[in-house]
Amino acid sequence: MTALLELDRVTLGYGKIVVVHELSLRLDAGRIVSVLGPNGAGKTTTVRGVAGLLPLRGGEVRLGGKRVSGFPPHRIVAERLAYVPQGRELFADMSVRDNLRLGGFTMRRRDVPARMEELFEFFPRLRERAGQTAGSLSGGEQQMLAIARALMPRPTVLMLDEPSAGLAPRTMRHVFDIVADVARSEGAAVLIAEQNAHQALRVTDHAYVLNTGVIEASGPPAELLADDRIRAAYLGEAVEGGPV
Ligand SMILES: Nc1ncnc2c1ncn2[C@@H]1O[C@H](COP(=O)(O)OP(=O)(O)OP(=O)(O)O)[C@@H](O)[C@H]1O
């Protein structure tokens, strides 16, 4: 089966520094894959490279088998890949509804209200706050809005960079559960770059552990957690946080 998203020996860097070395991964429909790893491991660099925001130094990115590396970001969006950056980048002075409308700017206008309604079913909090400005929402609600906005045009691949950042554990859990729910219902594939291994592993089908730009290990969560070396070095939070 052709992967929805495939990274084939992707190399990325800044100036003279190589930050991600020949990274390969695949993501299939309806699956949630995490890229885990400590600060500075190269997670953000990887998702920015896939989104077309950073040129590849080597290797290839394919979406549904089609090579997209070298495409500018808007063409990658047109190939139905959505990206929620760290920091969310919402339009703070605009309402929840208008932020969602902007997320649907590539859609046929008449399809926008129905799609918004569908997303309100997954994110009822956003329906309650539809007329409020994005800047007045709580951190968790802002993260939900950023994710819902990215989902407006029904992407086949959704990439989330550090969705747990700044959220309380209960809110994080809620956000991850909704993401899993949407992915399963809509058959989207989700790639999560995340430092919080505990939360990510709970909803992940397959994880890659990245350290200084190299994959140290990969596999289903149970397999990674069974590896004492990997668990101790990279998944500490997963263990401290209790069973995943
Ligand atoms: N614009 C930049 N210019 C130069 N070096 C950079 C730039 N952005 C990131 N780096 C370096 O690349 C390495 C990987 O950073 P990256 O942000 O991808 O890590 P990360 O795994 O996402 O970590 P974090 O969770 O802290 O964001 C780090 O050593 C960082 O200092």
TrEMBL record:
Instruction: List each coiled-coil range.
Output: none
InterPro entries (UniProt xref): AAA+_ATPase, ABC_transporter-like_ATP-bd, ABC_transporter-like_CS, BCAA_Transport_ATP-bd_LivF, P-loop_NTPase
Q: Which UniProt keywords apply?
A: Amino-acid transport, ATP-binding, Nucleotide-binding, Transport
Query: Sorted alphabetically, which PROSITE patterns does this protein's record hold?
Result: ABC_TRANSPORTER_1 (PS00211), ABC_TRANSPORTER_2 (PS50893)
Q: Which residues form the ABC transporter domain?
A: 5-237
What GO molecular functions are on record for this protein? ATP binding
Checking SMART domains in the record gives: AAA
Keyword S-adenosyl-L-methionine applies: no
What PANTHER family is this protein classified in? Answer: HIGH-AFFINITY BRANCHED-CHAIN AMINO ACID TRANSPORT ATP-BINDING PROTEIN LIVF (PTHR43820:SF4)
Family assignment from sequence similarity:
Belongs to the ABC transporter superfamily.
Q: What is this protein called?
A: Branched-chain amino acid transport system ATP-binding protein
Taxonomy, top ranks, is: Bacteria, Bacillati, Actinomycetota, Actinomycetes, Micromonosporales
